[in-house]
Amino acid sequence: MSRFLLVFCAIIGLDQLSKWLALHVWAMAQSCNNGLSFGIFSSATALLPLLLLGLLAVCVITYYYLFREHAVGFGLVIGGGCSNVLDRFVLGCVQDWLPITFTGLLNNVAD
Hints:
The chain is mainly alpha-helical. It has three helices and four strands, in the order H-E-H-H-E-E-E.
């Protein structure tokens, strides 16, 4: 369990730090993503909390039955997701800043 917590906390810290650095130090363009990954469901704001709860339930069930032995990998996935949920509660959206080559889309470290 301690490996999970270490990775979980490290990913949240690294993602939040990268978003802060991108905005305040590197002066990179950022977008405010109101949907899921790549802006999917961005217009379904009423359904988004239900979708997020459903995704969380799937992660917990998957971990319990399949990945109990893989605490580091699960810490990466859940830590990234929780960092984006933290953005959603604090900012109302997820900050994307990392350009995806040849697509014109932005993402973040947690994704």
